[in-house]
Design goal:
single chain, 4 helices, 116 residues
């Protein structure tokens, strides 16, 4: 049941992101402005919620990583990804459609990973 729920959540989110990308790529100025007005606050809240869930503990480690995986590296991929896309000077990769949101190769069951 968890696999079905995870697959459903993943599919729903990626479908919504793909839909927004298509509207932004193919829509006119009015469509893009409407998307910006309606979706930007939701996307901002989503990112804030994700990074809050991964806020480092007093030792600088992500609380979402299992204790046995924490090891010496305290970094969290959620924070690194947020920084790369929001702060760093790297240009964002151009959208390439649904394949851009494909499940990582190490995640064959559809179950969500720890995200770290």
């Amino acid at each position: 049941m968890d696999e079905v729920l995870a697959a459903s959540l993943h599919g729903g989110i990626t479908d919504h992101l793909d839909y927004l990308e298509r509207l932004l790529a193919l829509g006119d100025d009015h469509t893009r402005a409407s998307i910006l007005a309606s979706e930007l606050l939701k996307l901002t809240a989503t990112v804030r919620d994700l990074i809050e869930q991964h806020r480092p503990d007093s030792q600088g480690r992500c609380p979402c990583r299992p204790w046995w995986r924490r090891g010496r590296t305290p970094s969290c991929r959620v924070w690194a990804t947020a920084h790369r896309h929001l702060i760093a000077d790297e240009p964002a990769a151009p959208p390439t459609g649904a394949a851009r949101h494909a499940t990582p190769a190490d995640q064959t069951t559809g179950a969500p990973s720890a995200g770290c």
